[in-house]
Amino acid sequence: MQLLEIACLGKTLRLEGSMAGWQQLFWGEQCVSQIDASAEGDKFSHQFSLKNEQGELQVELNGALQWQPFSLQFQLLINNELQDENTLVEKDIEQRQISQGKKQPMKFSFVGMAGLGLKLLKSAKVIKVLFAAGSLAAYSWLFSIEFAIALILCLVFHEYGHIRAMKYFGLKTKGIYLIPFVGGLALSDDKINTRWQDIVISIMGPFFGLILSIACLIGYWLTDIEILAGLAVFNALLNLFNLLPVLPLDGGHVLKSIAFSINSRVGLVACVLGAALGVFISYHFGLALLGFLLAIGSIEIIFEYKRRHLSELLPLNRYAQIVSALWYVATVGGLSAIIWFVGQSGNGALSLPLKILGA
């Protein structure tokens, strides 16, 4: 991931590195120094020489790097004279625009052309209306107009949670797109820089869905209007599906961010034990399908943990890992509780989500 970017002698000096320990220093597009992954300790020192009209210049970038919690202290010296020094923390990484390297020449492909066409379509506001109308027509054909309207409201509320999280981090958003037979999509023009951003943006959609289901359930208790109970339970099922620990669903992003941030076997064991506890609780309450998918997720943790050094995003610190895991568990538990509670009513339609999870 990109750790540092500063100006140096008319070009950009960019430091990249990973939790594995390797670092590469680029002056412009040229790699001028490298530290192997076998290097030990938090301190680092990069040195290289440049020539200009004034002669040969000795450039040094010295500092200390700590991953959890993130802290990067550096000093830039040219011919032993201090040019720049600073200390960066996670907030600095979140707010920074990441430089992109040289783009590879484009090769023609139908998939690429389709992706380009979709990007062009997304720029037009009328496409949002067409997609929304198509979704309404599709769901009305499958179910009923009343159910289609309720489903679209649930999808919009879910995607609005993602949008609110993006805006919280200062990311530019393109809005919400409803795609027939697929669901919804919240898009941003900017790229994220940290795993914490990925966690919050991913989980806020289902968390907003949990809030909506709770509100509908309270409304049902106060009014006895059965459609509110139906909205609560089916919305809970929709958001619970999004929290399944597989990519590209929201739960997959949460799982991957946590696994990529773990830097010790103790943390890995804790995650696997937590997932095993979730499996046990799911089977205890008769939610066999949920338990099976959580078991698959625990296996995914191990595979993602092995690939953690490939991440280009700043990892979560210990506190953020715990908060993310608890937030995920609480959201999954809340949605599951709503499905289980409403399913106990014995109503055929309202108990359908519970039967699905018990399959």
Blueprint (SSEs and pairs):
Elements: E1 2-8, E2 11-17, E3 23-27, E4 30-35, E5 43-52, E6 55-66, E7 71-78, E8 81-89, H1 90-94, H2 110-122, H3 125-142, H4 145-168, E9 173-179, E10 183-188, H5 195-223, H6 226-242, H7 250-261, H8 265-284, H9 288-306, H10 318-343, H11 352-357
Antiparallel strand pairs: 1-2, 2-3, 3-4, 5-6, 6-7, 7-8, 9-10
Give a brief rundown of this model.
The chain is of the alpha+beta class.
Determine the strand fraction and express it as a percent band: 15-25%
Class of secondary structure makeup:
alpha+beta
| Portion of residues within helices | 40-55%
The gyration radius over C-alpha positions equals 25 Å
Please provide the ordered H/E string of secondary-structure elements.
Answer: EEEEEEEEHHHHEEHHHHHHH
Quaternary structure: single chain
Low-confidence stretches: 100-106
Number of domains: 3
Number of β-strand runs: 10
Major β-sheet, in short? 4 strands, antiparallel
Mean pLDDT: 76
Euclidean distance between termini CA atoms: 42 Å
Strand order of the largest sheet: 1-2-3-4
> What sort of overall outline do the alpha carbons produce when their principal axes are compared?
elongated
Given the structure, what is the number of helices?
11
